[in-house]
Amino acid sequence: MKTKIKPSTFPLGGIHPRSLGFNTMDNEIKNADLPHFVSIPLSQHIGVPANAVVKPGDIVKTGDVIGESSGFVSVNIHSSVPGKVLEIKKGYSAIGSMTEMVVIEFEGELNMSRTGKSPVKWKDMSCEDIIKKIKDMGIVGLGGATFPTHIKYSVPSDKKITELVINAVECEPYLSADYRVMLEKIDDMLIGIEIAKKLLNVKNVYIGIEDDKPEAIQKISEAVSNIEGIEVVDLQHKYPQGGEKQLIKAILGREVPSGGLPLDVGVVVSNIGTIVAVKEAVVDGKPLTERVVTVTGSIVKNPGNYKIKIGTMIKDVLAEVGLIEDPGKIVMGGPMMGLAQYNDEMPVTKGTSGILVLSKKQAKAYHHAPCVRCGKCISVCPMGLDPTLLCTSIELDRAEKAIEQGQNDCIECGCCSYTCPSQKHLAQTIKLGKLRQIARRKGEA
C-alpha cells in the first residue's frame, strides 16, 4: 500500500510548548552501566500487583520470574540482572504508592543475547498462545499508562476492532526515547505490528508521527511502502497529541465518548515501544527487563537515550550521566505529565519514559495569583472543559458538581497550568479532585 502523508491534528485546544530537549534526538540508544543492586517493584502496571515467588538468599538469572501475576489484570515481573535476592521490602514506587520490592545484588555474568534460542515461528502460534506469551513476558504499555498489553489485545466478543493506531508521537518536550526506538528498531516494529494485527484481526494500521520528526517519517514510510494496509500519518506538532483520544481524532476523525475507551469506536492504540516489546516477547522470548529512557535536563552533563535495567536506582543513572550541580528537582517522565520524586532512590520501572533533572533555579516554587478570567485555560483544553470553573468546585468541595463539569474527562495533560498567566495550579487541583473521589469510593466500599 502506498504511504499517504497527510498533516493532521486534533481540532480542540492543545499547546505548542517550546521545543526543549532536542539535544537528545540525535543520541543513539546506549546501554547504561550495569547497577550493583536493583530494587524491582512488584507493582509496575495498572491492576493487581504480582506476588513474590522468591525469598532472600535465592539465586536468580536474568529473565527469571520473581513475581507471578495474581489476576487477569496483572503481569509477571522478572529479574533484570543475575544475582542474589537480598530482601523483599516495602517501599514507595515512582508514582508514590507503597509496594513490595525485590532487592537483588548483581552477581555473575549477564547474558547479553536475547534468549540464546532460535526465534519462534509466531505465525504458527494460536492467538491464545500469543496472548499468554505477552502476559508471561510481563509486557505492558510503555507510553506511561502501563496497562497490561494482553488485556488490550483481548477484545471482548461484543466489540469489533477495525483499526490499529501506532502511537509514535512523543509530543512532550525533552523526551526522545520513542523517537530513537522507531529509528533503530524498524524491523522489530513491523513484526510487532503483524503480531498485533493477527490478535486484533484488523487490516488497517496507522502510524502517527509528528512533523517535527521528518527523518522518522521518511524512513518508516519507505519501510512500509510495499506493505498492504499500513499507512504513515504525518501529524502537526502539537501537545497533547499523544493522548489516545486526541490521536484517534487526529487520524480517524472519531470521537471517543465520555467515559469510553478507544475500542468503543473500533480502535486499539499501542505505543511504538510496546509494539517492539511485543515482538521481542513473542518471537525472541525476551521478558520486559529493560527499557529505553531519555535522561536529560539543563544540568545533565551527558544527556541521551539509555537502555536501563528495570530496578536501577535514579542515583545510579545520574552518577553515570553526571551532573553539573546538585539537582533542584528530579522528574520521572516529561515536564508536562511526569511526576516529581522526593529523592533519587526511586527505581526505574516499566513506565519510566524519561528522567528529567532540573536546576534549583528552574525548580523554584511559585505562588499563583488570582484568576484574571482570561479564558486561556479554556481555549487550550483538549477535552473542552472549563478548568477554572472545575477547580472552583473542587476547592469548595462540591464533589458532585465537579463530576458534572467533567472532572473525570480531564486527561491531566497540564495545558491549563502551562498557559495560565496567574500560574494557578489547575491541573494539580483537578487531579486532587479525582483522588478525593477515589478515596470516597473506598470509604463507601
Describe what you observe in this structure.
With about 450 residues, the chain is of the alpha/beta class. Among the domains are: about 170 residues, NADH-ubiquinone oxidoreductase 51kDa subunit (Rossmann fold, 3-Layer(aba) Sandwich), CATH 3.40.50; about 70 residues, no CATH class. It is about 25% helix and about 20% strand. It has 13 helices and 17 strands. The strands form 4 sheets. The protein has a 6-stranded mixed beta sheet with strand order 1-14-13-17-15-16, with helices on both faces. It has a 4-stranded antiparallel beta sheet with strand order 2-8-7-4, with no helix packed on it. A 4-stranded parallel beta sheet has the order 11-10-9-12, sandwiched between helices. The termini are far apart.
CATH topology title of the domain at 116-282: Rossmann fold
Q: Report the total helices.
A: 13
CATH superfamily of the domain at 116-282: NADH-ubiquinone oxidoreductase 51kDa subunit
β-sheet strand percentage: 15-25%
Question: What class do helices, strands and sheet pairing give?
Answer: alpha/beta
Strand line-up of the largest beta sheet: 1-14-13-17-15-16
Give the CATH class of the domain at 116-282: Alpha Beta
The N- and C-terminal alpha carbons lie at a distance of: 53 Å
Bin the helical content. Answer: 25-40%
Radius of gyration: 22 Å
Principal-axis shape: globular
Mean pLDDT: 93
How does the major sheet shape up?
Answer: 6 strands, mixed
CATH architecture tag of the domain at 116-282: 3-Layer(aba) Sandwich
List the helices and strands in order: EEEEEEEEHHEHHEHEHEHEEHEEEHHHHH
- Regions with pLDDT < 50 over 5+ consecutive residues? 1-6
Count of beta strands? 17
